[in-house]
Structures are given as structure tokens and as C-alpha cells.
Write a structure and sequence with these properties.
The protein is mainly β. Helix content is 5%, strand content 40%. It is built from one helix and 23 strands. The strands form six sheets. Strands 5, 6, 7, 8 and 9 form a five-stranded antiparallel beta sheet that branches. The protein is globular, with a radius of gyration of 19 Å. The protein starts with a helix and ends in a 16-residue tail after the last strand. The structure holds beta-L-arabinofuranose. Beta-L-arabinofuranose (FUB) binds next to strand 1 and strand 17.
């Protein structure tokens, strides 16, 4: 028994220290972690960052990812499993380049992987792939989802069995090129005093592979009910949508991009409007900030990334921190930045 305790103690300590703000895996670079609980286990659907010869630019061309790996763990602070390649760019007929931030959902006894990528014309679309297992491998649909565009799909399953996809990202995510779901290759961000470009929401069909309706704008408003203006870049939407439900309210969280915050806004319907409440995660190391929020065994967790392992903005590592709601429903701000 003593011998067992001698060996057990250091292992437990190492695991706890690793969990405290440390990368969940360090053998590959991972980012944009979309976490879900399936079969009592946490599955994380991240981007798989890789070094590439593509030079850095304002369009994010240096985020030149080529496959997805799903990672999982059965307890926070426990062993993390990398399930290997779940989907490879070479198996996706419609994609030209850049597999960006994915998400997943479970319905119809099937796991669905949703992912944004540039098509052969360099226009971002959203694809879907299916598997009977949460970790894949996934079999991809031959075309992107009809009517889809831009980046960062986040799929939220409501209590009544409906699923909604939130998506969009400005600048390199191309959302400014879409007005009324119509593509304009020259589309620009709005003028500073005009309404900011808003994320989109759309209900998914029962088959989970198509939109049940036209995508709509998600209205993000301040405490006075006024929509955010383009110039309010400390609060306006940039990318990285996520929705979780807490005490019957819908929490829409997102990245402010060039001001690097993860903020949140609360509403009474999955379609919004969502009223701004504050910052969930202060800026992290690296330019991008992207997260997900999930409840596991009665506690809420924030999954996020930074660049601790590489010091390079396009080579990120995912992490987790506990997230706390206050009694009035607001969320305590997390500062995870480490020098
Ligand atoms: O990982 C590529 C892009 O960087 C994501 O789609 C954005 O949300 C940002 O994290």
C-alpha cells in the first residue's frame, strides 16, 4: 500500500499542475476548441494548427490547416487522448485550403462535424461530415452546406430538440462580403458610425446537413437596446460564436478580434437579440481568442487557446479553466494571460 501511495502521489500532483492553465496537449498544436460532452466524456473539436510556408497577411492565410484531430478526456485534469486524423483536406472534394474552427453535434444516432474552409474560388463555406463515433473518422458530404458562408460554425442544441448554427467572422472570415445572404466579392465593413456587421444564425433541418431557413442576422445590442456600431470594436462581433443556455437564458459569446476579448450577451430566444453583459476572457497570448463553454459533472468550463508553446500566433494550444456564473446570471471574467 505504501509503495502504491508513493507512486500515486506525484502522478496526481503532475496532472493537477498540468491542468492549471497548461496546454491540454503538446504533441500537436491545437486551437479554437469546441467542447461537448458525449457519453459522459468531454470531446474537443479543435483546429489543428501547423507550420506552413504561407506568409502571414491580414486575411489569415498563415492559418493554413489541413486536417482535424479530435481530443477527449474523461475528467478535467485527467489524461487527454488524441484520436488521430478525423478528417483530411485531401478527402474533401470542394475545399481549396484552410480548415478553420470546427464544431460538432449529435442527433439521429450520428455525430456531425461542421467545419469552415475556403472553396476552390477562395470563398469560405461551411461543410459537414458524419460519423457513428464522436471521435470520427468522419465521412464528408461532397458539397458545402447550401446557403452557408464565412467561418466559425457553432451548433447549439436547444431543449426542444431544435439545432441552430451560429456562424461568421469579419476581415479574413469574409462575413463583410455577404449582405442578405448574397455574395459581393467587394463587400466592405460598414462605416464607423453604422451598425457593425452581425453574426448569423440559422435553424438546421432534421437531417442536420442543411439549413431549414434563410440565415438571419444576430442582433447584439448594448444595455439601451442599441445595436453595436462598427467603431465599437471593444464590444462588436468579430468571430468565434458560441451559445450556451443557463437558467433558461441564451448566452451568446464571441471574440472581438482586433481587441482580443471574449465577450458575452444574453437573450430570451436562440435568435436573439442578445444584450451585452461583459467580458468572459481577457486577451490571451497570441492575436486570436476563441473559446467554448460546456457544463461537465455540474461545473461549467471555458475551453480556450493561447500561444504558450510556440510564441507564434498561428501555432496555438488549447487550455481549460473553470467558468463561474454569479447569482444574477452574469459571468466572472477570467484572466488567463501568462508571461
Ligand atoms: O483558426 C483559424 C481562425 O482563427 C478561426 O476560425 C478564428 O476564430 C481564429 O481563431
Amino acid at each position: 500500500v505504501w509503495l502504491a501511495m508513493l507512486f500515486a502521489a506525484p502522478i496526481a500532483t503532475t496532472t493537477a499542475q498540468k491542468f492549471a492553465g497548461q496546454p491540454l496537449v503538446d504533441h500537436i498544436y491545437t486551437a479554437d476548441p469546441s467542447a461537448h460532452v458525449f457519453n459522459g466524456r468531454i470531446y474537443i473539436y479543435p483546429s489543428h494548427d501547423v507550420e506552413s510556408s504561407t506568409p502571414e497577411d491580414d486575411q489569415g492565410s498563415h492559418f493554413d490547416m489541413k486536417d482535424y484531430h479530435i481530443i477527449s478526456l474523461d475528467k478535467i485534469g485527467g489524461k487527454v487522448t488524441d484520436h488521430g486524423v478525423a478528417l483530411d483536406i485531401k478527402d474533401i472534394p470542394w475545399v481549396g485550403r484552410q480548415l478553420w474552427a470546427p464544431d460538432a453535434a449529435y442527433a439521429n444516432n450520428t455525430y456531425y462535424l461542421y467545419f469552415p474552409a475556403k472553396d476552390k474560388n477562395d470563398v469560405f463555406r461551411i461543410g459537414v461530415a458524419t460519423s457513428k463515433k464522436p471521435e470520427g473518422p468522419f465521412v464528408v458530404e461532397r458539397q458545402p452546406i447550401a446557403g452557408s458562408y464565412s467561418i466559425d460554425p457553432a451548433v447549439f442544441g436547444d431543449d426542444d430538440g431544435s439545432f441552430y448554427m451560429y456562424f461568421g467572422g469579419i476581415w479574413g472570415g469574409q462575413l463583410q462580403r455577404w449582405d442578405n445572404n448574397t455574395y459581393n466579392p467587394d463587400g466592405q465593413l460598414h462605416a464607423p458610425d453604422e451598425q457593425a456587421v452581425m453574426p448569423r444564425v440559422v435553424k438546421l433541418s432534421k437531417d442536420m446537413k442543411s439549413f431549414a431557413e434563410e440565415a438571419k442576422e444576430v442582433k447584439l445590442v448594448d444595455q439601451d437596446g442599441k445595436v453595436f456600431l462598427e467603431k465599437q470594436n471593444d464590444k462588436r462581433f468579430f468571430e468565434a460564436s458560441w451559445v450556451h443556455k443557463y437558467n433558461g437564458k441564451y448566452y451568446f459569446s464571441y471574440s472581438t478580434g482586433d481587441t482580443h476579448n471574449i465577450c458575452y450577451a444574453v437573450g430570451d430566444s436562440p435568435y436573439g437579440p442578445f444584450t451585452y453583459k461583459g467580458i468572459i476572457l481577457n486577451p490571451v497570448k497570441g492575436w486570436t481568442n476563441h473559446h467554448s463553454i460546456v457544463m461537465f459533472k455540474g461545473k461549467w468550463y471555458l475551453f480556450y487557446h493561447d500561444t504558450q508553446l510556440s510564441g507564434k500566433t498561428h501555432l496555438r494550444n488549447v487550455k481549460v479553466a473553470e467558468l463561474r456564473h454569479n447569482s444574477d446570471g452574469t459571468i466572472q471574467t477570467i484572466s488567463a494571460h501568462q508571461e
